[in-house]
Amino acid sequence: MANFVLIPGMCHGGWCFEELSGRLRAQGHTVHPLTLTGLSERSHLLPGAVNLDTHIQDVTAVLEAENLRDAVLVGHSYGGMVITGAADRAPDRVASLVYLDAVVPQHGDSCWILVTEQERKWYTDVVDTGYAVRPLPFFDPRATPHPLASLLQPLRLTGDLSHLRRRVYVYATGWDGPSPFTSVYQRLRENPAWSTHALAGGHNLMRDAPQDLARILLEVAEPR
Question: What is the pTM of this model?
Fold first, then answer.
């Protein structure tokens, strides 16, 4: 059975994977839907020091504490930054990465660099302390402000991630307007080192297409 670790996007907590987690557990797999430091039920841990490194450590700490091996890390949106860093920090524990309508960073990239100008304007809408970005009005009511430093800090990679068995990109086709991830999907679709999928649904595919998404993840978990 596989070990899945699910990383939410900006302003969200592990609760956003509730249905997907249930589907994977029903097949006998171990699932860890994480809430990153400073968000949701961990929003009280939001000092200015919470950054991308903090969130990467959130993942590597779970991998170590739960003694997980051959883990499948799934990152939604901003979570693509986090799973890339965690795979680099814990190569002996991570087997596969699944980017769920997410950024796919290289060494030196920050989320700020990778997103569109429209998203950068959102990032400047910070709470009074200046530490965090406000959730967008249409987000789930449970959404909380997201640590700004995690979006600005460049990712530091020490390796080339060649140890990974699978790298998978899942693209959402149902955006209300142009998707900011279209160019990423089109580029990776031509790369033989990647597997790509396109699902009918909005950005939050774990909400809009949990059944199809679970099917893809179960395929990733199969021995190669």
Answer: 0.96
